[in-house]
Write a structure and sequence with these properties.
By secondary structure, the chain is α/β, with parallel strands linked by helices. The chain contains 15 helices and 16 strands. The strands form three sheets. Strands 10, 11, 12, 13, 14, 15 and 16 form a seven-stranded parallel beta sheet that branches. Helix 2 links the parallel strand 2 and strand 3. Helix 13 packs parallel to helix 14. The longest helix is centred in the first third of the chain and has 42 residues. The structure holds zinc ion. The site of zinc ion has 6 residues, from strand 10.
């Protein structure tokens, strides 16, 4: 029965082919899945450039005053108490000064800036150096600083006296080192008072609380008038660690890698690759007739909110613009890189969120350039957009900066309401083709607002583009 045999053979062949095809298909599926898994795992990035430390940013803008406050937040809450106490006390004092001067502040708002620098000088050990600038019109600006040395391993603050061997001989040595630096400093020598430095070193209450450490130096920060005339401001004197070696306890010499036969150790710095793809620019393939909006996110990046917003944007194939603060980019370089890799536009929102018209030209340029550099270091790209804090601009600012400022057409007030539905209704009531929508990715409630906005505007046929794409439409 040949025909039947043939049929069976054909069926068998078909069956084998089917199984081969099927298993091929399955293994392809698995391969794709494992590819995705790989992508997932490569997405696991280092959260912060400073292990166990985040940066908190609080921005307030009122008619009478504005505040930009930045402080570190440690993973372990015990370290945060003292920091929060310091920040809250400064804020409270400022706000009561503002309320005493309310009438005169309508023309020129008061401002409070609390910024910090962070230096890792041994494993799990950081210098946190706060700088506070307070300005209430009618009074001189007030500037002060505060140093914290934090150990994230045992969650304790260190005293400088635990690091320095405090005895008469060493005090003399510190005095000599500082004296040399002051006398040789072109910036300070005219304003320096030797007697006052002597008084400072001989004061038995002096516990060197104004000293902090970096991986290279011991730095002494003096408040205004302590050892110099007012014109010198608040001097900062750096002494290389090699010169300080004999003054440091054995334990800390070891921890800081300063033992005699060692080169000063540089604690592991975050490695920043600049391997992002410069050709990965967003494509503007929308038909000319499509309605477009630009979603913009200021004051970030933020280690959890920004990630969630990036995922939401992906879901809608949306591109946005992130106006980032340099001091936060420094904390989150890998996150910044991810924003670039996903094809969003990189924006400069200054280093520390000061109102630029209040600054001198040099300081304006520094706020912009340090931020451009931080973004470039993290992503390999220079930001293509710029937005001034508070939208505050004047001719001097325009003249000092070679980037065109981008403002907004819809202010969602997300930072104030923390109400996703209110944010959505502000957008829905005001949106038109070409709108630029202002939001802030440092607020958790904004993530939910973004989800609502994407859904709503997508249904209305809007396309989400970067501010540069909007401009070149
Ligand atoms: Zn801002």
């Amino acid at each position: 029965m040949r025909p039947i045999k043939l049929t069976i053979s054909i069926l068998m062949i078909l069956g084998v082919v089917g199984i081969v095809l099927m298993s091929n298909f399955l293994s392809k599926g698995e391969a794709e899945e494992s590819l995705n898994n790989n992508e997932e795992s490569s997405n696991e990035m280092e959260r912060s450039a400073y292990p166990n430390v985040d940066i908190i940013t609080e921005i307030t803008e009122e008619k009478t005053h504005n505040m930009a406050i930045h402080y570190p937040e440690f993973t372990e809450p015990t370290l945060n108490e003292e920091i929060t106490e310091y920040v809250t006390a400064s804020e409270k004092e400022f706000l009561s000064e503002v309320s005493r001067n309310k009438e005169i502040l309508m023309d020129l708002p008061a401002s409070l800036h609390i910024l910090f620098d962070i230096h890792q000088f041994a494993e799990d050990t950081y210098s946190i150096v706060f700088n506070e600038e307070r300005f209430v019109s009618g009074a001189n600006g007030l500037q002060s600083s505060r140093v914290f040395l934090a150990n994230t391993n045992n969650d304790e603050f260190l005293q400088q006296a635990e690091i320095l061997i405090d005895n008469e001989q060493n005090r003399n040595e510190i005095y000599q080192l500082l004296l040399n630096e002051f006398e040789q400093s072109a910036e300070y020598n005219l304003y320096f008072f030797k007697d006052q430095l002597e008084e400072w070193i001989e004061d038995e209450n002096n516990a060197f609380s104004n000293m902090f450490l970096t991986d290279e130096s011991a730095v002494f920060k003096f408040d205004k008038y302590v050892v110099t005339a007012g014109a010198a401001g608040s001097p900062e004197i750096s002494i290389p660690l090699e010169k300080m070696r004999d003054l440091i306890t054995d334990e800390w010499k070891k921890r800081m890698g300063l033992e005699d036969d060692q080169v000063p150790a540089s604690p592991e710095q975050p490695t920043l690759s600049d391997g992002s793809d410069p050709d990965d620019s967003p494509e503007g393939t929308a038909p000319l007739s499509a309605k477009q909006v630009a979603l913009t996110f200021d004051d970030g990046p933020h280690p959890t909110n920004t990630i969630e917003i990036l995922q939401l944007l992906d879901t809608y194939d949306a591109k946005a613009t992130f106006f980032m603060l340099g001091n936060r980019v420094e904390f989150y370089p890998e996150l910044t890189k991810k924003i670039a890799e996903k094809g969003h536009e990189l924006g400069n929102h200054t280093w520390s969120h000061k109102s630029l018209p209040a600054l001198g030209r040099e300081e304006i340029v520094k706020e912009i350039e340090t931020t451009n550099e931080a973004i470039r270091k993290a992503t390999g790209e220079r930001p293509t957009a710029f937005r001034p804090p508070y939208g505050a601009l004047n001719d001097q600012v325009r003249d000092a900066i070679d980037m065109d400022p981008t403002l907004w057409t819809i202010d969602t007030l997300d930072w104030k309401s923390h109400d996703p539905h209110q944010v959505l209704s502000i957008v829905e009531e005001n949106v038109t083709d070409g709108s630029v929508i202002l939001m802030h990715d440092i607020h958790e409630s904004t993530v939910a607002a973004v989800e609502l906005i994407l859904k709503s505007l997508d249904e209305e046929g809007y396309e989400f583009v970067t501010v540069s794409e909007l401009n070149t439409k």
